[in-house]
Known about the structure:
Layout: H1 9-13, E1 19-31, E2 37-45, E3 51-54, E4 61-69, H2 77-98, H3 101-110, H4 114-125, H5 134-144, E5 159-168, E6 172-177, H6 189-200, E7 204-208, E8 211-214, E9 240-244, E10 247-261, E11 265-272, E12 279-283, E13 285-294, H7 300-308
Antiparallel strand pairs: 1-2, 1-3, 1-9, 4-5, 6-13, 7-8, 9-10, 10-13, 11-12
Helix pairs in contact: 2-5, 4-5
Amino acid sequence: MPKDLNFFYEQQLFNDKTSWRLFPDQEAVSVNKDGQKATKTIGKYSDSPLIRGIVTETSFGFSTEHNYSGPEDVGGIGKLLQGAAGMATNFSQAAGMIGGGTNDLLQTVTGKGLDEHIKDIREKTTTESNGVSMIGDILDFARSHAGGAFITSYDYIKTFKGTSTNFELPQLETRIYHDLPTVAGATTVKTAVEKLNLAFIGGISENIQLFAFQEAPNKYLPSFKGIPKSNESDPIPGTFLLKYGPFQIPNLLISNFSIRFSTFYVREGLRSNKESGVKKGEFLYADVKITLMPCTYVSRDLLTSVIKNLSY
């Protein structure tokens, strides 16, 4: 009976179908005449992942939200209509509350009923050019619809202000074991963590008295390619490419990460300390959690590209 290799941890860790991989952008190393090394990005992601882990979530997707809001009040039309509606609503509600007693009250106090007051207002507010009293018309309408509330079509005009799309990126989790290359080129937990710190935390290049200059993680450089064209594939310098099973998401940044060391050691690779005579081992494992965020606009073209390139 054949053995089922899928139960072995490393079989899942190094299987593209069951693992996630994080790729940094690729650098080229050059040496000048003085023998000093210099690095620069060459416009593509590395062929080898920096770190990998086993997929813990079996779903991956995105969410989209459209932003619609009221239009800009050009020329004050909105305020004019909303003010007229507010006045009509107040008048209508007052008329509805007082009901049939409105006329009696006004008649007693002013000697005129409600209709006569509206007529007076209409005469005083009628424009000479067209013989129309907008306020009078509003009050007449409110009088005949006592107790109602007035709205304007302007309140329901919506203008498109943009679309926000985000990948629902899972938190990446992995365990770095001693003598298992979960991090590229590292067989010990200590070496692996050192490599991650170099990529995930920017160094201090200048320290002058009270001020210091901290470099961006992974030599990240902001770019005006934040809204990439459909035919652009070059990564933004300092970003990462995530391959999560069949999904590939470029131009990602590390927003936060955490590392917790095992308090146990392994006996393999013991080093003898001649001074104290105490033998030291290596960390058994370290747990790593990574949270990612995109640094470019997630467009429809990018979504189409991600879905189109799904393959095992």
